[in-house]
């Protein structure tokens, strides 16, 4: 089991969601804590160890450190803005 570290941006985004979407994202984060590389994750093309997973209409961008999952950004899946936000916080 890994520990979780959420960026301020990711935390604010989760807080802005409706309860149903919060639960979906919380369930996916729980899956990531148990298995940081689930079958539906994809490695980002940047040279570092960054991954993304989709949760309904949202995308989570994260990295894995020894015993920690670092969630940088959560945003709309079909919106490139999630990647622009990721570039700013990373």
Describe the structure in your own words.
The structure is a single chain. The chain has 90 residues and is of the alpha+beta class. The protein has a single domain, classed as RelE-like (YaeB-like fold), CATH 3.30.2310. It is built from three helices and five strands; from the N terminus they run βααββββα. The chain has a five-stranded mixed sheet with strand order 1-5-4-3-2. A hairpin with a 2-residue loop joins strand 3 and strand 4. The protein is globular. It starts with a strand and ends with a helix. 20% of the residues are buried.
Secondary structure blueprint with pairings:
Elements: E1 3-6, H1 8-16, H2 19-34, E2 42-43, E3 50-55, E4 58-65, E5 68-76, H3 81-89
Estimate the mean pLDDT confidence.
90
| Total domain modules | 1
Under the CATH scheme, the architecture is: 2-Layer Sandwich
Low-confidence stretches: none
What is the straight-line distance between the termini?
A: 24 Å
**What global shape is seen?**
globular
CATH topology: YaeB-like fold
Radius of gyration: 12 Å
Question: What order do the strands of the largest sheet run in, or round the barrel if closed?
Answer: 1-5-4-3-2
- The CATH homologous superfamily is called RelE-like
Summed up, the helix count is 3
